[in-house]
Amino acid sequence: MQQSSTKILGISAFYHDSAAAILEDGKILAAAQEERFTRDKHTPDFPTEAIRYCLEESGFSIDELDAVVFYDKPLLKFERLLETYYRFSPKGFVSFAKAMPVWLREKMFLKKLIREGLREVEAYDEKKLKLLFPEHHLSHSASAYYPSPFEDSAILTIDGVGEWSTASISHGKGSSIEVLKELNFPHSVGLLYSAFTYFLGFTVNSGEYKLMGLAPYGNPKSKETLDFEKLIKDHLVKIYEDGSIWLDQSYFNYATGLRMVKEDKWKQLFGFERRSPEGELQQHHCNLALAIQRVTEDIVLKMALEAQKLTGSKNLCMAGGVALNCVANGKLQAAGIFEEIYIQPAAGDAGGALGAALAAYHIYFSKEERKTYRPDLMEGSYLGPSYSDKEVELMIRKVKGVYHHYSDHSKLNEVVAGELAKGLVVGWFQGRMEFGPRALGNRSILGDARNPEMQKKLNLKIKYREGFRPFAPSVLAEEVGTYFELEDPSPYMLLVAPVKENRRSSLPENYHDLGLWERLYHERSDIQSVTHLDFSARIQTVHSDTNPRYYSLIKEFQRQTGYGLVVNTSFNVRGEPIVCTPHDAYRCFMSTEMDVLVINDYVFFKPEQPDWENKDKWMVKFKMD
Fold first, then answer.
1. For residue 393, what are the contacts with CB-CB under 8 A and spacing of at least 6?
2. Residue 316: beta bridge partners?
3. HEC string for 290-328
4. Exposed, middle or buried by CB within 10 Å (0-12, 13-18, 19+), for 507?
5. Backbone angles phi, psi at 579, to 5 degrees
6. Which residues are CB-neighbours of 26 under 8 A, at least 6 positions away?
7. Fewer Cβ within 10 Å of end Cβ, the chain: N or C?
8. What span, in angstroms and rounded, lies between the C-alpha atoms of 451 and 469?
9. Is 354 helix (H, G, I), strand (E, B) or coil?
10. Which residue has the higher pLDDT, 113 or 549?
11. Residue 339 and residue 424 in one domain
């Protein structure tokens, strides 16, 4: 008689980036963020639709599950809130008065909320349901270590805050994870970075990547940048040799207030007011972004050195929101502290759902020795829903779309690569949706990296977002060394590396004194649209074994142009989650100046679509991010 398998559902919810993931005997069957289904970016809502998808993809019912696992311990988090308000009293009473009713009504009764949420998905026997609650940073650690190819690894998790912990160093060996060191609230690298996100006019918990993208516009040689860096280290954060930090709470307001910082004190410190969310970007904003980016890199490098010292491991796994800072990751990779680094592609709270399930399987349930696989167990992070040709054709009938069908994939690639080479923008929708914040070639908007106008066109006419925002190259894995100073694979777009010297253009002596937009549009390399102002690029290596369709498209583009890379940005407009369904993709295509849409084997050319010039008909208003 065949032994039954262990089936586990992981959930993250109620803070931001709600998600669900499902495992069978440790194998990841499906994972998705709730935002993709509800179209509400970074939604904290219970992941009803994501759970529904995971169950459908796996074929399991709730009654068949061995456990449902939530990604943190809510009572510990409640304890931290109470203790923080007590310690800072009488300050923070307004924040306390707002937070407590929500906690008492909802989050203290989380088991009840989870049971009710599951009931919305389907009927089940509540008496049989096993609920587990690992700690937040264990969920992060597990999300990186267990899918990694390492049998022994240091594990570094850095984020805003979990229950108490804001960063942790652990040691993964076989099936076990041992926590060696923790940094506790209110001292937090993630919250420090988020404070600057707020002060520079971006949205906390979603705008941190904009701050990272703004940093290269800072003048690395200017006195102002160096002064800002010194002010941060002298007044805001004390950095110790082991990477632990102490934040002067007299400058911050996140522990008890409703805002991140005390704006008057920051204005006095840095010499300018907080930038309004849509305010004009000035050089001092860019210089401050560069300063905090450098400080963050310094802290991350020190933490990594401490992790290596404590574990003696040659490998490192990383998770937590700060692990999405691919500039810091690139510096860490280049430092050579570890032989190999593995970063969970869904490093933020969404990945906590997966980590919670993996922690439960390996620590609570599994009796077997953990097996490792290369490159990893994430299936390229293509863990979301895919759509059949029949579903695509149903969508086409509803929207009255005009299409060309190519059953011969080589012909389809030839046509699409040709359109890219002409300077057109292509929406590329294939296979299973990505899990995590990056589009990795299944829900992507593509362009020609050689085209010096491509960054401007994508930002202003397709994405409808700030013009300074950079774009990433998707490069054939075997060609990465032709374009970039990177020898290692970067399949999840989580490493930044320099563009090769021989591809760079020489810059005028007064380059750093030019205006922001003059510098942006100055020719820097022969792959201008993916070359940032500091000659860096956020790289995705594309591998034929994990994404053969995307790989073969870029290979065809190389055959036609001699360049084995394309611009890759996520398939969405500003404020919108990455598209999930064929209808999402067609609507986004029609509401922007995108030229071509490819869904499975169906190709749509904009001028052939009915009423194609009426973008407003398809436009959806998303909240600003």
1. none
2. 154, 341
3. HHHHHHHHHHHHHHHHHHHHHHCCCEEEEECHHHHCHHH
4. middle
5. -60, 150
6. 6, 146, 358, 361, 362, 366, 370, 377
7. N
8. 16
9. helix
10. 549
11. no
Co-location of 558 and 424 in the same domain: yes
CB 292 within 8 A of CB 232: yes
Looking at the structure of the chain, the number of domains it has is 3
Q: Roughly what angle, to the nearest 10 degrees, separates helices 582-591 and 389-399?
A: 40
Residue with tokens 């990945």: 351
The identity of residue 495, as a single letter, is L
> What is the predicted pLDDT for the residue at 2?
55
Please report whether residue 436 resides in a domain: yes
Looking up tokens 């002067």 gives 248
Q: 469-522, pLDDT tens digit by residue?
A: 889 999 999 999 999 999 899 999 999 999 999 999 988 888 878 887 888 888
* 511 plus 609 within the same structural domain: yes
Using CA atoms, how far apart are residues 236 and 408, in angstroms rounded to an integer?
Answer: 60
Q: Verify that 366 and 398 share a domain, yes or no.
A: no
CA dist 145 and 385 (Å) reads 25
More confident residue, 87 or 262: 262
Which pair of structure tokens corresponds to residue 468? 């300074």
Q: Number of helices (H) and strands (E), helices first, in the chain?
A: 20, 21
* Ranges assigned E (strand) in 433-581: 443-447, 472-476, 495-498, 536-542, 565-570
Confidence of residue 322 (pLDDT cuts 50, 70, 90): very high
pLDDT of residue 162: 73
Beta bridge partners of 32: 20
Give the pLDDT of residue 515: 82
- Are 324 and 351 in the same domain? no
Q: Please state the three-class secondary structure of 410-460 as a single string.
A: HHHHHHHHHHHHCCCCEEEECCCCECCCCCCCCEEEEECCCCCCHHHHHHH
Higher pLDDT, 280 or 477: 477
Question: CA–CA separation, 290 vs 220, rounded Å?
Answer: 8
Phi and psi of 552, rounded to 5°? -70, -30
pTM: 0.93
CB 10 within 8 A of CB 22: yes
Any domain includes 1 = no
The C-alpha torsion from 108 through 113 and 114 to 116, rounded to 10°, is: 160
Query: Are residues 285 and 357 both part of a single domain?
Result: no
Q: What's the domain range around 120?
A: 7-147+344-377
Q: How many CB atoms lie within 10 A of CB 198?
A: 23
CATH number at residue 45: 3.30.420.40
Are 249 and 336 in the same domain?
Answer: yes
Is 164 within a domain?
A: no
Both tokens assigned to 187: 């001292």
Q: How far apart are the first and last CA of the chain?
A: 54
Tokens matching residue 335: 């430092």
288, 319, 343 — which closes off a domain? 343
**What is the spatial distance between Cα 58 and Cα 380, in angstroms, rounded to a whole number?**
18
DSSP strands (E only) in 102-174: 131-132, 152-158, 165-173
Matching residue, tokens 């998770």: 319
**Three-state DSSP class for 552?**
helix
* The last residue of a domain, from among 320, 343, 366: 343
Instruction: Give domain status of residue 177, yes or no.
Output: no
Please give the pLDDT value at position 257.
67
> Does residue 403 sit in the same domain as residue 306?
no
Q: Which two tokens stand for residue 166?
A: 């804001």
Closest to 189 in 3D by CA, of 170, 168, 215: 168
